[in-house]
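## Example record

The block below lists the input lines for one assembly entry, exactly as stored, with component labels intact.
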Amino acid sequence: MNSDHDLPGPAAPPPTSADVAKLAGVSRATVSFVLNNTAGGRVSEQTRAKVRAAADRLGYVPHAGARSLRAGRTGLVLLVGSDAPIGSLFSGFYRGLQDALPRYGYTSVLLGPTPGGWNDAARAWAELRPAAVLCLTPGLTPEGVRTLHRSGTRAVFTLGVPPVPGAHALIMDQREVGAAAVAHLLERGRRRIGVVMPADPGLALFAGPRLAGARAAAASAGVGVTVEPLPLDYTEESAAELADRCRESGLDGLFGYNDEYAMLALRALQDAGLDVPRTTALVGADDLLLARLLRPRLSSVRMRLPAGEELAALVDRAVTDPDAVPAGRNLMAVELIARDSS
Amino acid sequence: MNSDHDLPGPAAPPPTSADVAKLAGVSRATVSFVLNNTAGGRVSEQTRAKVRAAADRLGYVPHAGARSLRAGRTGLVLLVGSDAPIGSLFSGFYRGLQDALPRYGYTSVLLGPTPGGWNDAARAWAELRPAAVLCLTPGLTPEGVRTLHRSGTRAVFTLGVPPVPGAHALIMDQREVGAAAVAHLLERGRRRIGVVMPADPGLALFAGPRLAGARAAAASAGVGVTVEPLPLDYTEESAAELADRCRESGLDGLFGYNDEYAMLALRALQDAGLDVPRTTALVGADDLLLARLLRPRLSSVRMRLPAGEELAALVDRAVTDPDAVPAGRNLMAVELIARDSS
DNA sequence: GACATCAGGTTACACGTGTAACGGTTACTC
DNA sequence: GAGTAACCGTTACACGTGTAACCTGATGTC
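Predicted structure tokens for the full assembly:
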């Protein structure tokens, strides 16, 4: 029937290096030497060709598990993603890292959130015997880090402050975002400042520190400056309520958490008859292009992360010599882009 | 110095089940039986407790490579992501799938684009001996699929039309998006229709079929309907040029590729003095909340993908019995949401 | 008391790979 | 022509697991 498709039967076992050796008429060791290019001058060009042809013909692919078992190590880097809705900033960051790591001889995989607690998750990762783990969402416990280290993981990076003992900290201090926004609003003469707090629990990890940073900036400006958190569900109705509260509280400055929420708030403020920026100055974050399409154009806190290449090099150093890299490292740079909304 | 940290020396080898057995005073087989719950009534409760305590004390974690080597299979599902900037639709889809697969006993990992060609990529995946591969970006070759199958992969899913021989096709026919948009514009009496084509090469995989769908819908409406592709870089300057071309060509309908590009186009059209929807009717795609914030509110093609649970079940069926699932399956449902811009 | 049953383990092997240590030719040197 | 070096491979072992087959006392059964 499907003779040219040559789909294997129920379970034709995958070819092994022994099969290749048999077909090529050499020993299995020779196959290994040839296919790994680890034969100095040990194998003649003729034999190499035979081995390669045989491997090709059988469609031989080495078994990563067996290889890692024998070698005792793995070129695996685990990127553990957040369960929050990731923006383009993060996804670009991941992409750059996944792009750069192969150049250092690693293969990277991105893991989603694991069911169960953090310790279970750490055990699951440890089973893979990765060379390094980059946990880009906070939560990993010190015990989880110990589990990883004991199972041979050379380097564990974890996000945030305070650092987890035994791990390197990648610091993306969200407080700076809130602080930059509020500092700008203060500079514009605003004293009664609102901070949009998204209701999405996945965003609480970012929203909390941003609010804290906003409060810190307000506090350092002296008395008389108030900061009021304003919950906002990602709907137009909720935004209308937020606009009402803005008017009632007489807020003259608003930090919108990020550009998307700020855009939502802007529309609601305008629909409520409030003038932006005259009555209420508004600042977002992320510096999305779309936020420049509204009128007034939205002011925004721009965040930048280092290029993937740079972080890949850091990971490599940490793997080869864990003590050679500093315990903490700040990744994020913030910059305020002032436009018409503030 | 750091006695309480008890960081291991240069390389304390990870504990193995033999270490656990020694500490617990039993044989290695018993350890395996206990930790895998595969001992019917073979091991007394007392011994089990001893083994568990020993494993816990050593921080024992099994070696996934060795296990897969012995078992001959892996509960691994590879999700191969696109290198295109993924929208919230896709990321939600991934998330749902990663959420659901563990419930079927699989562990899923997300792989980024691999350097090298598709055949190299397929070989790299095959090394992991996955149970299934879901390649959610087109490009995988028939040879790549054969490589995977020969190395023991039970099911390979690949995106798009035409299907790759030997693989199951997940169809997300982007032509339907363009067709739905243009059908709506025709219904609104528009005859000279422009289609925004993003310059980003990563989006060409979507943009091409959407344009083709638009053309097909126009053709089926009879003569006199024209479709004109309009290139758009994701910048405001490029959008201004696009608006000029709209005027010059006298277009009365515009499909904006997606909501983000449509928003960009809308702003440019308005800045150029064109009335939307009177002069030019505009339709986007993705049904973003943000697109409802502009005035006029943006009409949009909403796309829906099945829940992760449903697809996870499909993957499981394909793994257990590859012949039991149909060769192709349409995932995407489109629906036009008419608002004020058309 | 001989024999079967059974609970509670253990021994032994296989999975596929990398590599250190060890041959067997052939050619070259004194 | 014996020693030796260079060339080209091979043999043998280890990595950490899971499990079928086997063992060993103790407890019933007739």
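Residues 26-30, 33, 39, 41-44, 47, 66, 68-72 of chain B lie near DNA strand C (CB under 10 Å from a C1'). The CA atoms of residues 146 and 166 of chain B lie 7 Å apart.
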